[in-house]
Design a protein that fits this description.
By secondary structure, the chain is α+β, with helices and mostly antiparallel strands. Helices cover 51% and strands 28% of the residues.
Length: 242
């Protein structure tokens, strides 16, 4: 709208100046023609020549005014088209923003519902754990909650232990019917056997890095073929000071 207004203002000033000049030329043309009618032959020829010169100048001035008006009209049209295109894009963006807000609200509501459904349990060391995830969706909810670090664990029964974060684990036995397993935990060069642990049970142990806050291994699935356990390792967000 500012661009259109500026174009109109500029055009108005320029056009008004030319219109005043055109009026002056018309007066000069009328005076020249009147002089030609009342003059002798020689003066009449000169007066007619002058009148013709003024007429051509007048026509040129009028043509320039028409061209400027047409040019301004075209520019105003272009500006309006650009404005309409911009408004259409703004409307599209507003719609997208509204859709994103709706999705975010729905996601937050789903996250809160999932968190509300999570349970806390006492670990094998007798320490009350935080919230426990029993499936992938619940684990995602815990990650978004951001209170602890979570590392996916998929541990097969092999000769060599596997490293997860700053600890290593070795699966020594499983009991698929009872959903139990036994693992060796190596942390800070100290090996601990966690025997006959159940699924979704917080298996707790301390490390120098975690200080007085225990690490927790939570296994959700015990598979027979291949022999493996699947779950996650939960560690404290804040490391112990040394």
């Amino acid at each position: 709208m500012n661009a259109v207004s500026n174009l109109r203002d500029t055009s108005a000033v320029s056009t008004n100046a030319q219109m005043r000049h055109i009026e002056t030329l018309k007066e000069e043309l009328a005076a020249a023609r009147a002089q030609a009618l009342s003059s002798s032959n020689q003066v009449k020829v000169e007066a007619n020549a002058h009148a013709e010169q003024i007429r051509k100048q007048l026509e040129a001035e009028q043509a320039q005014v028409q061209q400027k008006v047409a040019a301004v009209t075209s520019e105003v049209s272009d500006v309006k088209q650009s404005a309409n295109a911009a408004n259409a894009k703004i409307a599209d963006v507003s719609t997208d923003v509204g859709s994103v807000k709706t999705q975010v609200t729905a996601t937050q509501e789903e996250l809160q519902k999932t968190i509300a459904d999570l349970k806390s349990a006492k670990g094998d060391l007798g320490v009350q754990s935080g919230l426990i995830a029993t499936n992938h969706n619940e684990l995602d909810a815990l990650r978004k909650l951001g209170e602890r670090n979570y590392i996916d664990v998929k541990l097969a029964k092999t000769k060599q232990p596997q490293r997860f974060g700053d600890i290593t684990l070795k699966l020594t036995s499983i009991d698929v019917k009872k959903n139990k397993y036994t693992v060796l935990v190596l942390a800070d060069d100290k090996q601990t056997e966690k025997k006959d642990k159940s699924i979704n049970e917080p298996v707790q142990f301390y490390t120098a890095k975690g200080g007085h806050i225990p690490y927790e291994l939570v296994i959700n699935t015990v598979n027979k073929k291949p022999e493996e356990i699947i779950g996650y390792l939960s560690t404290p967000k804040v490391e112990a000071t040394r």
